[in-house]
Amino acid sequence: MRTLSDFISLVLIATRDLFLDVSPYVLFGILVAGLLRIFLPPEGIARHLGRGRFLPVVKASLLGVPLPLCSCGVLPAAISLRKQGAGKGATLAFLISTPETGIDSIAVSWALLDPIMTVARPLVAFLTATFAGTVQNILEPPADDPGPERVGRARPVERLCGGKERDPDQVQVRRHPGEKLLEGVRYAFGELWGDIAGWFAAGMLLAGLITVLVPEDLITSVLGGGIGAMLLMLLLGVPLYICATASTPIAAALILKGVSPGAALVFLLVGPATNMAGITVLTGILGRRAMAAYLGSIAAVSVWAGLILDRVYQAFGIRAEAAAGQAADLVPFPIQLASAIVLVCISARPLFRLVTGLFRKRPGGGGQGTAPACRCGGDCER
Question: Is the pTM above the cut of 0.70?
Answer without folding.
Answer: no
